[in-house]
């Protein structure tokens, strides 16, 4: 009998693994609807949907191993990172999904709220928050939307050798900023950006905006992570990303 492994569990959703099957339980049916539709549209490898009985979505495990995890060096080769970049480029060149993405005004409002929370609660030194808020500003520029994954963490991209075998967790997919996907994939692994871009290409890539998204994502995610049992102050994670930007100043 296969053991039941709890992969992720918090008060919004949970993911369990039983053998080669993942069971995703989400209280918001829109997340699952987006995930199923996005995986069907994406021109890159995605998990097979086995069945869907709300609020549970069953998908097959993809072969290979994740590019890595936040807070630890990535074990993947340069070629694997390059292959991931090529896959992301194919996604970004695909037709847009028909549902709306996040409005820039909403992103800016959330950024200001989360910065205020960080300052009011003394979570980080004020100069770290304020400097990263300045660095984040270019991410709020108008941009031509592309088909983005929306949560392209490196543990959502699986490779076998130098081949991408699957990209998982599509519930945040939408029209959006291409630089956001590139930033999330290299968050805490900035040294792998050149490897990623070797496959993605440098046309239309704005490194300043990628750096802006590193700051913006880390600023806006910190409270949620803290409230849901994660530690943004773990080595190599969000707070270290914010501190590293001070060294870039």
Automatic annotation (TrEMBL):
Q: InterPro entries annotated for this entry?
A: AGP_Transferase, Aminoglycoside_PTrfase, Kinase-like_dom_sf
Per its UniProt entry, which superkingdom is the organism in? Bacteria
Q: Tell me where in this chain the Aminoglycoside phosphotransferase domain is found.
A: 36-213
Annotated Gene Ontology MF terms?
Answer: kinase activity
Q: Which SUPFAM superfamilies match?
A: Protein kinase-like (PK-like)
Listed A to Z, the keywords are: Kinase, Transferase
Q: Which PANTHER family match?
A: AMINOGLYCOSIDE PHOSPHOTRANSFERASE DOMAIN-CONTAINING PROTEIN-RELATED, AMINOGLYCOSIDE PHOSPHOTRANSFERASE-RELATED-RELATED
Protein name according to UniProt: Aminoglycoside phosphotransferase (APT) family kinase protein
Question: Per the UniProt entry, what species is this protein from, by scientific name?
Answer: Nesterenkonia xinjiangensis
């Amino acid at each position: 009998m296969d053991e039941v492994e709890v992969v992720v569990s918090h008060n919004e959703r949970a993911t369990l693994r039983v053998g080669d099957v993942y069971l995703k339980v989400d209280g918001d049916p829109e997340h699952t609807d987006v995930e199923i539709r996005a995986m069907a549209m994406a021109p890159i490898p995605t998990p097979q949907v086995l069945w869907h009985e709300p609020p549970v979505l069953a998908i097959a495990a993809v072969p290979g191993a994740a590019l890595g995890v936040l807070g630890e060096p990535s074990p993947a080769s340069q070629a694997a990172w390059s292959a991931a970049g090529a896959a992301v480029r194919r996604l970004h060149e695909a037709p847009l999904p028909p549902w709306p993405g996040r409005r820039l005004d909403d992103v800016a409002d959330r950024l200001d709220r989360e910065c205020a929370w960080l300052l009011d609660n003394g979570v980080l030194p004020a100069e770290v928050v304020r400097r990263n808020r300045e660095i984040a500003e270019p991410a709020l520029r108008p941009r031509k939307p592309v088909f983005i994954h929306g949560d392209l963490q490196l543990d959502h991209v699986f490779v076998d050798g130098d081949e991408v075998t699957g990209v998982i967790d599509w519930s945040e997919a939408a029209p959006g900023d291409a630089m956001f996907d590139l930033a999330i994939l290299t968050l805490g692994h900035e040294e792998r950006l050149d490897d990623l871009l070797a496959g993605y290409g440098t046309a239309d890539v704005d490194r300043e905006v990628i750096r802006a998204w590193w700051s913006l994502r880390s600023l806006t995610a910190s409270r949620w992570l803290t409230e849901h049992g994660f530690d943004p102050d773990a080595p190599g994670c969000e707070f270290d990303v914010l501190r590293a930007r001070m060294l870039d100043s």
